[in-house]
């Protein structure tokens, strides 16, 4: 009897489902939310907003961890290799889950193969940002200056292969001027150098540019979307400003490693959707930072990627963009 009872107990434990034998998610340990860029940019802002809301909803710590580099590829590779247990999330972007697939020949991860889509969070307009000391007040004047002065043909970006990089490449292609790309490890240092006059201009998300513009440290000339935006209705589109054919928007999403349990993905999607509908989140992301909140289903995010990956592959090929 002394041997039968312990054996029976072990057999009963083995028969339990894995999630029941262990602590139910997310009780076991803190959740890590990986942001593949430096602190201060749009992806980081969204990550910290969602981390706080998820922490409240799930009653578990959610820690934001920044892993910048390779247009978000370093952070993406890290998450792609993480255990698919619901304890690692990823702040994906147009770069990590669309552009990188065609820009890098030996990408260490695959956007579709290695990730579970959780939610498309928001789309964001990019904006053409210049140093005020350039002395120009319109896109047309900037184009004229670039054609006349080779010393002003440097543009910054938040990293090679990002949408801000490709926006600059496309701009140069459409105006017929060979530009020099200066990549940075994230938006904040790139914007700092534009504001300081180290680099003439850049394209980046309205989220990051607006505070510096309000402070007079940079000047905004146009948005890259197909129509004007409510946050800055005075800004023309690039097409209206004299560069027809120029249209692009950035986007932000949440992913988990491939194989994460379906129930966990659905719970995360539900909590993220609830968070994005809360007035304080709407005020922060939409009213203050100009993001268009989407809050999609996992299936809608997968369909969005299926459209975006070939679209950006075509733009990468057309522009001749190369990772630096």
From TrEMBL:
<keyword id="KW-0732">Signal</keyword>
<keyword id="KW-0675">Receptor</keyword>
<dbReference type="Pfam" id="PF03401">
    <property type="entry name" value="TctC"/>
</dbReference>
<dbReference type="InterPro" id="IPR042100">
    <property type="entry name" value="Bug_dom1"/>
</dbReference>
<dbReference type="InterPro" id="IPR005064">
    <property type="entry name" value="BUG"/>
</dbReference>
<comment type="similarity">
    <text>Belongs to the UPF0065 (bug) family.</text>
</comment>
<feature type="signal peptide">
    <location>
        <begin position="1"/>
        <end position="22"/>
    </location>
</feature>
<protein>
    <submittedName>
        <fullName>Tripartite-type tricarboxylate transporter receptor subunit TctC</fullName>
    </submittedName>
</protein>
